[in-house]
Design a protein that fits this description.
The chain is of the alpha+beta class. About 20% of the residues lie in helices and about 35% in strands. The chain has four helices and 13 strands. Helix 1 crosses helix 3. It is globular and about 60 Å long. About 30% of the residues are buried.
Length: about 240
């Protein structure tokens, strides 16, 4: 790999910090499982993931969902200047003299740190539901006798905190460089979808589980040289 510093590797100097905060509400049952329970105290075979007894949506799950949306957004641009690196492609670089991998620039790659950080979203108001499920015989398509199991999920309209930080991309003011403008547009697309239509996270998405929306969205902008005093905005008006 060349020793030349990539033009998109700009995190050695902090110019802008964006902090997005709000509340995530699940519109449909939400299930982020922790695997089969081995605890006698658990009343279910398949509990949801919890931190200190509260359901959680891991930041890694949200980040994966956001990255997937950005990849689809960049491909839809159909512009050779903006591309998507395959995670297993060791020769692909986050950017070169002619093109940019926007998902790599936002969420990191083998040659570049992430500029987007998403914290675990822990439930503040919630209730846990439980369903008894049947195992389907894959040959006959009918119920497999003697294979009932229980599944936990977070009931709809539960509320989780949400916190996300973005470095060196100004979502409020216009960026000058093309690759930064496209990166900002991609992030705004994700956040606007999260605010309006919602996105799916967790398990059983194909049967409607895990549709979440962001509410009460606020954005704080910290700008160099004063990185300690933010200006606050309504997220919906910014994006």
């Amino acid at each position: 790999m060349s020793d030349k510093i990539m033009s998109c590797a700009d995190l050695d100097v902090i110019d802008t910090i964006i902090k997005v905060e709000g509340k995530i509400v699940n519109l449909t049952p939400l299930r982020v499982g922790q695997g089969k329970s081995q605890e006698f105290t658990e009343a279910t075979d398949n509990p949801v993931m919890k931190i200190k007894g509260k359901p959680v949506i891991p930041g890694s799950s949200l980040k994966g969902a956001f990255r997937s949306m950005v990849e689809a957004y960049v491909k839809s641009l159909n512009d050779q200047k903006y591309r998507v690196c395959d995670i297993n492609d060791d020769k692909c670089t986050s950017c070169d003299d002619h093109s940019y991998c926007i998902p790599c620039i936002l969420f990191g790659f083998k040659d570049l740190a992430s500029r987007v950080y998403i914290l675990d979203s822990i439930a503040e108001e919630f209730s846990i539901g439980q369903r008894t499920m049947v195992t389907i015989n894959r040959v006959s398509g009918g119920q497999l006798t003697g294979h009932l199991y229980t599944l936990d999920f977070v009931e709809p309209n539960s509320k989780f905190n949400f916190s996300m930080m973005i470095y060196n991309l100004d979502l409020v003011n216009q960026e000058k460089e093309d690759w930064k403008r496209v990166s900002v547009d991609a992030l705004k697309y994700v956040l606007k979808t999260l605010l309006t239509e919602g996105i799916f996270v967790g398990g059983r998405k194909s049967v409607g589980y895990g549709l979440i929306k962001l509410t009460e969205g606020k954005l704080k902008l910290y700008k160099s040289p004063d990185l300690l005093t933010p200006k606050e905005y309504d997220l919906a008006k910014v994006i």
